Amino acid sequence: MTSSSEIHVIDPATADSAHAQIAPVPRISMQAFCETGDVSSIIQDSIIDRRMQKAHVKLHMGGALAAVEAYRESPTPNVIVIEMNGQRNDLLGHLDELAEFCDAGTKVVVIGKVNDISLYRDLMARGVSEYIITPFRVLDFVRAVSELYSTEGAPPLGRVIAFYGAKGGVGASTIAHNTAWALSREFDLATIVTDLDLAFGTAGLDFNQDPPQGIADAIYAPERLDNNLVDRLLSKCTDKLNLLAAPATLDKIYDFEESMFDGLLDVLRASVPLIVLDVPHVWSAWSRRMLIGADEVVLVASPDLANFRNVKNILDVLRLVRPNDAMPKLVLNLVGIPKRPEIPVADFISQLEIPAAAILSFEPKLFGTASNNGQMLGEVERGAKQVQVIEDLARALMGRAEIKKAKSSKLNPLFDRFLRKKAS
Questions:
Q1: Is the pLDDT of residue 384 over 80?
Q2: Would you say residue 184 lies in a domain?
Q3: Are 175 and 331 contacting, i.e. CB atoms less than 8 angstroms apart?
Q4: d(Cα 125, Cα 351) in Å, to the nearest integer?
Q5: Domain identity same for 105 and 177
Q6: Domain presence at residue 223
Q7: Do 124 and 253 share a domain, yes or no?
Q8: Pick from 66, 50, 134, 140: nearest CA to 101
Q9: Is position 350 within any domain?
């Protein structure tokens, strides 16, 4: 076991699992030895959490005795988790026996139900890294494992916000860029816009930038990827806002492996407080991974039937693979286009059972002027209603505003027919 001068005690009564950001767990091996089905179930659920996707976890029953037997002749993993609900002397005796077989550097997490300061001291003296008191939640366990690898004094982990259009042409990139601009101004935080649409990305145009290098130079040279390389590839938009631009060329085919952007995101998270991902409207292993791994997901849609279907399908997927995260924030854009039939906003969001974080009406002059001039909406018309809506969205993404629910209204016939079809 590793020696430690301080033991961390995870007490669910004082831990705020819902709001505190948790760093992704690094690529480690971990084996858990449980005594009860409740603890086993919680650890099993934690394995599928997005922050644990790099960890290799095996789950066993049998508690401390099973752990001792398992490592008599086998090397120990990076982390051993042991549930111990027996008598105090038995618990400490099992730990002493396990210590004889633990490799240097192995961290031990103990799960128990006894809340006693003298026990904490005995565990600390034996090099235990964490003590978790039952009952606890999935995020309590994920946080405990994450903090085993958090360096004291390290800068806070950057927050990743992914924007994704439910359908092509709904303005997801425009909303992403303007929200990033608002975030950097409103909260005075260093922010990086990362354009992941390497073939057709528009971030360079929207910010009136034409950098010779960008994101392609980072992902195609993983052996050189570090803070210095990323700094050289950034294009400065404002004092607090930088752009990692897409090449927007068609001289190659951009087929990426699922983990292609992992190294870049690790560097960005360690470099700046806010990272805004402009994810193109494609459904692939890597784009799905971007949505799963983000701290916040923003879905941009227009109020028609195809958008409704796509948003519902995306929400169903994200509910399944992000069970411990808040639901994505929904932005309805291009609302009220003249002579275009559309689903009433209240019906659209009520059937999805999530509120709209922002509703942007159709304003072709404002958006068109900003796009053609390479400006943000706030630079074209600071007091415009759409600018205020985007600033409110930025505050909501940082937990500073409440999202209001829309009033109910009558379903239109096409939308109603779609819902009946889905129900049947």
A1: yes
A2: yes
A3: yes
A4: 56
A5: no
A6: yes
A7: no
A8: 66
A9: yes
Mean pLDDT of 239-247: 95
Q: Which of 59, 42, 25, 49 is nearest to 134 (CA)?
A: 42
Distance CA 396, CA 358 (A): 9
**Gap between the Cα atoms of 422 and 251, Å rounded:** 42
- Token pair of 356, please? 């709209």
Separation between Cα atoms, residue 367 and residue 175, nearest integer Å: 10
The pLDDT of 352-362, averaged and rounded, is 94
How many domains does the chain fold into?
2
Is 340 inside a domain boundary?
A: yes
Task: Of 41-45, 83-87, 118-122, 399-403, give the lowest mean pLDDT range.
Answer: 399-403
- My answer on whether 177 and 311 are in the same domain is yes
Q: Which pTM was predicted? A: 0.82
The separation between the first and the last C-alpha atoms of the chain, rounded to the nearest angstrom, is 57
Q: Quick one: pLDDT band at residue 74, thresholds 50, 70, 90?
A: confident
Binning pLDDT at 50, 70 and 90, where does residue 97 land? confident
Angle at 197 between CA 196 and CA 203, to 5 degrees: 85
Boundary-marking domain end, from 127, 147, 167:
147
Going by pLDDT thresholds of 50, 70 and 90, the confidence category of residue 129 is confident
Q: Does residue 171 share a domain with residue 108?
A: no
pLDDT of res. 412: 58
Percent of the chain with pLDDT over 70: 88
Please check whether residues 213 and 138 belong to one and the same domain: no
**217: domain CATH number?**
3.40.50.300
Which of helix, strand or coil describes residue 366? helix
8 A C-beta contact, residue 146 and residue 22 = yes
174, 159, 149, 127: which is closest to 278 by C-alpha?
Answer: 174
Structure-token match 């003249």, residue found: 338
135 and 267 assigned to the same domain = no
Beta bridge partners of residue 298, listed in sequence order: 163, 329
Sign of CA dihedral 275, 278, 283, 286: negative
**Which strand (E) or helix (H) includes residue 424?**
none
Domain limits at 106? 8-16+24-147
Query: Hey, what's the torsion of the CAs at 227, 229, 233, 238, to 10 degrees?
Result: 30
Answer yes or no: do 417 and 370 share one domain. yes
**Same domain (yes/no): 101, 166:** no
